[in-house]
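Friendly challenge for the regulars: who can give me the C-alpha cells for this chain first? No prize, just bragging rights.
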Amino acid sequence: MSWKNYIPQIIEELNELQKLTNHGLLAGGALANKIWEKVNNKSMPINDIDIFIYDEYLEPSDKLDEDRYKKFIYSEKESKKSFDSYAGMRYESKHSKCYKINEHSRDSLLNFVNYSASTTDYNIIIESFDINCTQVGYDLSNGKLIFTKAFDEFIQTGDLKVTCAASPAHTLIRILKKRDELSAKLDKAIEFTYLKIARGQKFNNFMRHYFGDKYHDLYAKWKDELFTEGIILKKIEQTEWRTSQGYNPNLWTLDIDTGSTIHDGRNYLNAVPSLNDLDFYIRNIFGDKDRERLWRKFGTMWARKKEYINNIPSLEQEHKLEQFYWKVPEMSLSLQELSFDEQLSVIDNLCKLTDEETTICILKTCSISDSVLNEDDILLMSLRARKMIHKKNRNFHFEF
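First reply, four minutes later:
Bragging rights claimed.
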C-alpha cells in the first residue's frame, strides 16, 4: 500500500486533534510524522501543527540582503556568467525566488506561519526544509498533496539525508533528533561531511549559523556525540553594535574543530558557488576519485549542467578537452549548452576542417548549441573567424 493512500485518514485524525483551517499549507513535523507512523506502525508525537499562510508578493531584490538578519529568509539564487580576458569567468548571483517569514501565531496546537514570497507555489516552502523526512505538505484549500522525490525516497528507505543546508548548525542537531525520534538510519560519514562543508565554506545563499535558547537546550542531549565528530558549541559575543541593533544576546553556533575541518587541498570544491551545487557534489561526486578529478577540472560546467558528464571519459579525452579549456576559457560560455562528449565532438569536427587558429577563434566568438555541425555551418563560422583574425592583425600592424 502506498503511503499516499493514508493521507485522507491522517488529515481526518489531525482535524480531530484540532479543527484545521480550509486554507494554507499544512506542512512540517506533524504531517510527516503521521505518515511515518502509518507506514511503520509506530506511534509518533504531535507537538504542533504548522500551517503556512501566504500574505503577499515579495520582490526578489538585493534588499533581502539587508533584511536577512532580522527575519527568516529563504532565497534561491541564479548565477549569470560573463567572461573577460583579465579576470576570466565571472559569476553574478541574483535572487530568483524567495520567501520571508513575517510572523508566527498560535492557536492551541495550530502554529500559523505567515509569509511573503515571490511565488504562490507552495513548493518553495517544501523544498526549503532541511531534511528529507520533512519535505511534504498538504494544500488545505484543494486537498493537493505536495512532496519531493527526496521525501518519497525516505519513506521507502528510512535513510535520513540533508536536503537544504542553509542552516547547518541547526541541522546538525535536528538530524540527530530526527534519527532518534523516527528510529531512522543516518550515514554520518556523508551527512555530517555535507553539513561541515556548509558550515565552513562561503556560498552565495543566505546562511543561518546562529541559534537561540531552544536549540541550545536541544544541543545538550547530543553534545557528546557531536563532540566526537569534531563539532563544538560556541557562544556568540554580544558586541555593542549587536546590542544597538536589538539582536538576541543569547545566541550560539556550532563550530567545526580544526582537526575535523573538511580540507579542499585539491580544489574539488572550487566549482561549488551555491548550496544546490553542494548537494549535487555530495550526492554525485564526493568519494569517487575519477569524478572528483573531473570535477576539479570541469566543475564549473558540471555544476550548471548536471548531465554534463554521464560516463567517465578516457584519460586521452579528458586531457584533450582540458587543454582546449586552457587555450580557450571562453568555451565555458560558447559551449555551455553542450555535454562533455558533445563539446569534444564539436572540437574534433572543427579541427578536421579548419586550422587550429581558426578553431580557437570560432570557440571564442561563436555560441554553439548543437554538437552536429555540417560543413556549411563550419564554413560560415570559419569565414566569420577569419574576418575577425584579419581585423585583429590589421589593428596591430605598424609600419615604420
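The chain has 16 helices and eleven strands. The longest strand covers residues 88-107. Your move, everyone else.
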